[in-house]
């Protein structure tokens, strides 16, 4: 009989990185301590990101030009699936996510292999930036409506995608859809019957010198436009709005340990 420890070796970690030379090596080394299979996708960085991960026991893929986060994730997914991954964990390279929390995702996935897991930050941690928090909450509402369930932290990049989900749900991943991609994946996953659950995570202040690549105005406009189109295509999906407003119907919250509510 295959043991959980053996299955855990079949998970892969994908870390998209664009101009993250200051932080990517530390994040990658810590991720490698938690999971044997780590992929760093250097998205055409113009700094020393590629050299920063040199010599590490990980797979490094390099985009010759900047493809955006969606393109980098898709390339990492493709490589991991080709290696037989049963699930792919993603986290950002800027130091906000704690690689030490990777086992939380693997454990919950082993308990429910069909679950699509999204890391949810506590609201007090998300409120560090008023404008960013407000933009994220707007995105959470719209995405929850289209998905037909409340979504606590739709913009979190710390996730676990089951291999079956990645094979079944294929989305456009051009450069203009960088942050739209992750939002659309939540909607399409739930619409196609995949279970969306939360994993409570911490979040740290950005360790590197550069600002976030997420642009609260432009990217939220793009996400809202995508969601609006999906709602219009389903007659505004009133049942989805009702369920999203009704309360949580998935495991875990951003304010405490996982619990069914």
The assigned structural class equals: alpha/beta
Tell me the domain tally.
1
Number of helices: 11
CATH homologous superfamily - what is it?
A: Spore Coat Polysaccharide Biosynthesis Protein SpsA, Chain A
State mean pLDDT (0 to 100 scale).
85
Describe this structure in words.
With 261 residues, this protein is of the alpha/beta class. The protein has one domain: Spore Coat Polysaccharide Biosynthesis Protein SpsA, Chain A (Alpha-Beta Complex). It has 11 helices and 7 strands. A 7-stranded mixed sheet has the order 3-2-1-4-6-5-7, with helices on both faces. It is globular and about 55 Å long.
Give a concise summary.
With 261 residues, the chain is an alpha/beta fold.
Please name the defining characteristics of this protein:
single chain; 261 residues; alpha/beta; Spore Coat Polysaccharide Biosynthesis Protein SpsA, Chain A; 7-stranded mixed beta sheet; 11 helices; 43% helix; 15% strand; disordered C terminus
Task: Produce the secondary structure layout.
Blueprint: H1 4-8, E1 11-17, H2 24-34, E2 38-43, H3 49-52, E3 59-63, H4 68-82, E4 87-90, H5 102-111, E5 115-121, H6 123-126, H7 130-147, E6 159-162, H8 163-168, H9 178-191, E7 195-201, H10 216-232, H11 238-246
Parallel strand pairs: 1-2, 1-4, 2-3, 5-7
Antiparallel strand pairs: 4-6, 5-6
Helix pairs in contact: 4-9, 7-9, 7-10, 7-11, 9-10
């Amino acid at each position: 009989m295959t043991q959980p420890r053996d299955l855990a070796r079949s998970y892969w970690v994908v870390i998209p990185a664009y101009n993250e030379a200051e932080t990517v090596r530390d994040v990658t080394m810590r991720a490698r301590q938690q999971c044997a299979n780590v992929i760093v996708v250097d998205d055409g960085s113009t700094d020393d990101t590629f050299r920063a991960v040199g010599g590490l026991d990980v797979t490094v893929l390099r985009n010759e030009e900047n493809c955006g986060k969606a393109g980098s994730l898709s390339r990492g997914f493709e490589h991991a699936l080709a290696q037989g991954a049963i699930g792919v964990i993603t986290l950002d390279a800027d130091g906000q996510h704690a690689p030490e929390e990777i086992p939380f995702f693997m454990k919950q996935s082993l308990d429910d292999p069909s679950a699509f897991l999204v890391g949810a930050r506590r609201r007090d941690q998300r409120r560090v930036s008023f404008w960013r928090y407000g933009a994220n909450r707007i995105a959470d509402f719209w995405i929850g409506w289209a998905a037909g369930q409340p979504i606590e932290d739709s913009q979190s990049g710390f996730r676990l995608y089951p291999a079956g989900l990645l094979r079944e749900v294929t989305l456009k991943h051009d450069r203009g859809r960088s942050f739209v991609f992750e939002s659309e994946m939540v909607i399409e996953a739930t619409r196609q019957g995949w279970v969306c659950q939360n994993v409570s995570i911490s979040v740290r202040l950005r360790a590197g010198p550069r600002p976030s690549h997420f642009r609260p105005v432009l990217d939220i406009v793009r996400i809202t436009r995508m969601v609006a189109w999906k709602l219009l295509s389903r007659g505004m999906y009133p049942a989805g709005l009702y369920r999203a407003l009704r309360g949580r119907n998935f495991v875990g919250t951003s304010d405490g340990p996982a619990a069914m509510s």
